[in-house]
Amino acid sequence: MIYDVIVVGSGFSAIAVTCNLIEQLPVSAKVAVVGDDPGFGRGTAYRTELYLHRLNVPAGRMSLLPHHPDDFVDWLKSRGRQLQAGDFASRSDYGLYVRDTLARLLRKRDGRCRVDFIKAKAAGCVERYASTLAFHLGNGDEIAGKNVVLCLGVGNANLPVDPAGVPPFLRSRIIENPWRLSWLRRVAPSDAVCILGSGLTMIDQVLALRAHGHRGRIDVLSRRGLAPLGHAKMPPAPLPIDVERLPRTISVLLKTLRGKSREVADWRSVMDGLRPVTQALWQRLSSEERARFLRHALPWWNIHRHRVAPDVFAAFEKLVSDGTVRFHAGFLKSLEAGQDRLVAGYRVRAKREIAEIGADWLVNCTGMERAGLSHSPLLKEMSRFQLIVPDPLGLGIQVDAASEVMAPSRSSSARLFAVGALTAGQFWEITAVPDIRVQAKTVVEEIVRARPVSDA
């Protein structure tokens, strides 16, 4: 069957695109949404049921559709959640809101386009009929589309070392995907836990452990030993920043931003001032300067830019101050068994010294892999047939300013777009809801404007 639009994916980006398609396409249009995730639209982050797992963005900036800015706050109030626009809602509530928004749009039987949800994995892609892209599905079917939107996210980062040598009885205590929260029930209150990675996922898992009764020691190992900072209880006003006046080299740019931070009462006002111009700032940088940022500045950018809710930060800081959570800076070199527990050997940062951490559990919180192609057989095949081109810095695939995929060898007149993390090479800040929702709306507007669907 030939569709006007095919959406490939089943996470937040896919649901944002689908909602905009329902709102903007005529009744005659046909849309297919292809994905095999049973929690369609909620994704890993919004499927958690633990209330301590909060959004890292205030509720007032989390509406699914940017042209309805109060939608999420209104939904919260309708469910009896007494939260204001500046409060941080739970991730589970946000997942329910996303699901309800899609369901509300789908209930409008009259006056909306046809939407087919196909529960299957897209296994391959070829150009077909000179005007469509066709996808081979895992269930044996094939569908084709005049417009395609890739909404494939990124996979979990692998452990830095191969755990194959660890005996089976300890191998089960290595948690490679911490979002499968059933592992928490197996942790004894006094067990020692070692967490790899010190980002937002680490904080989520530390608080989840405490909520499940764990009271033992938690060692956190990361390359630099840095942890995310918190939002202010009373957020300062963003500092207006003229991106055209900022330097184009990372070293001078960082020096300039540090200077601005010393001139204001709260450094957060500088970071929040950068938020609306981050994409423009990124696009001004040369490939060399972007690579330099990724090598040297990214960890410090992450802890200042991607902050946690004030009360979550306070709870975590208390665990650090009383010694429950201890940080170690270094590179994991080995993972072995020793006296009925795991032993993580690491090279101490800036030294040749090798140190060890003994633990009953090791949890991989190194986060999501950089937005490459390795996690997706479909993307690897599309790259092999030159239907897509990898970003030279490993940040997804090459797209233009309109999020349209750049692949000079493609001959079909079908249009191929990408939304979300796959477009990080062009936009950088494109993993959070406030950015993705705008991108999704813009892509759909371009599809409707430039390639009207038939009335047949």
Describe the protein.
This protein has helices at 12-24, 71-78, 91-106, 168-171, 200-211, 250-263, 268-274, 278-284, 287-305, 310-321, 377-384, 424-427, 433-450; strands spanning 2-8, 30-34, 114-118, 122-128, 132-137, 142-150, 174-175, 193-196, 218-222, 325-338, 341-348, 354-359, 361-364, 415-418. The chain is an alpha/beta fold and 456 residues long. The chain has three domains: 2-155 and 370-450, 3-Layer(bba) Sandwich (FAD/NAD(P)-binding domain), CATH 3.50.50.60; 163-229 and 308-364, FAD/NAD(P)-binding domain; 243-305, no CATH class. The strands form two sheets. Strands 1, 2, 3, 4, 5, 6 and 14 form a seven-stranded mixed beta sheet that branches. The protein has a seven-stranded mixed beta sheet with strand order 7-13-8-9-10-11-12. The longest helix is centred in the middle third of the chain and has 19 residues, at 287-305. The model has no long low-confidence stretch (mean pLDDT 91).
The CATH superfamily name of the largest domain is: FAD/NAD(P)-binding domain
Distance between the termini: 14 Å
- Major β-sheet annotation: 7 strands, mixed
Provide the succession of SSEs. Answer: EHEHHEEEEHEEHEHHHHHEEEEHEHH
What number of structural domains do the residues give? 3
Which fold does the CATH topology of the largest domain refer to? FAD/NAD(P)-binding domain
The CATH C-level class name of the largest domain: Alpha Beta
Q: Summarize model confidence as the mean pLDDT.
A: 91
Task: Tell me roughly what share of residues is in helical segments.
Answer: 25-40%
**Gyration radius, to the nearest Å?**
23 Å
What is the strand tally? 14
Overall SS class: alpha/beta
Q: What is the overall shape?
A: globular
Contiguous low-pLDDT stretches (5 residues minimum) are none
- Count of discrete alpha- or pi-helical segments spanning 4 or more residues: 13
CATH architecture grouping of the largest domain: 3-Layer(bba) Sandwich
InterPro entries: FAD/NAD-bd_sf, HpyO/CreE_NAD-binding, L-asp_N-monooxygenase_NS-form
Pfam family, one: NAD_binding_9
Organism: Rhizobium chutanense
Protein name: FAD-dependent pyridine nucleotide-disulfide oxidoreductase
